[in-house]
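Ticket #4471: structure export looks truncated?
Reporter: QA, pipeline team
Priority: medium

Steps to reproduce: submit the single chain below to the structure queue and open the exported record.
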Amino acid sequence: MESKGLSRNNRENKAKPKRKEIIEKRKAMDALIKVASAEKDYLSAFPAFRHYQISGLSAFLESGRGDKLYSHVKQFIQNLLKANMEGLYGSEWPAEEKVKRREMVAPEARYVFVRNASNASSVEFLTTSEREKTSASCVEERGPIVGFVHFRFVIEEELPVLYVYELQLEPRVQGKGLGKFLMQLIELIACKNHMGAVVLTVQKANSAALNFYLCKMSLKSYQLFNIKSLVKSVTNHLWSNLGGMFFKLHIMVLYSTDLY
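Actual output as written to the record:
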């Protein structure tokens, strides 16, 4: 009886450090998400990404957040989502549109907006803090928005990740390398903020998007139920590298799903 009691105590003592370790890791992940989400201008660390220039297109990028969007920006987002996504969702679009409208203005929503700089004024490269001091009409003088990335910092299957909710571009600026440029910026933002992966979801019916992410961006495709195996291989490396000056691990994961 005594040996059984000692054995049980040993198991309990071993379990306690494990529970404590899990709690500490969760606290560390929550802290990472909080710090990453508090950043006001995600482009400030990457000034080379403020401007994108290619034959036939001159654009500049700026940061934004869901709870501080001008009404005309909200309308642009809604219109572009409808133009690009309604055909894919078909009869399910009205319900999905309501979901996307709520997601659009959520406090945790973060944005990188793309403006057409062809006719922009000399104030086009204002920082986020400078932009907040200007009026909506003054901001619009820097050129119309032609696309955006909506992303968030979240914990996905016990891993802190940058989750890309939307990458939407107007047809006139597609096929010019801008999407790849934006995803490269997203990778850098994820690395700087010590995220374990960049994650996004694409419907299987969206062949153009799948081709972009799998071929041009060389993303690894995982079904949702397989993400845990990825987490297991990444987690130890993640926590062992958090003490470094810059976290270099970046894995991009694609959830390819049916519509419903």
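Status: closed, not a bug. The export was complete when the record was re-opened. Leaving a note from the reviewer for reference: The domain at 2-257 is CATH 3.40.630.30 (Aminopeptidase).
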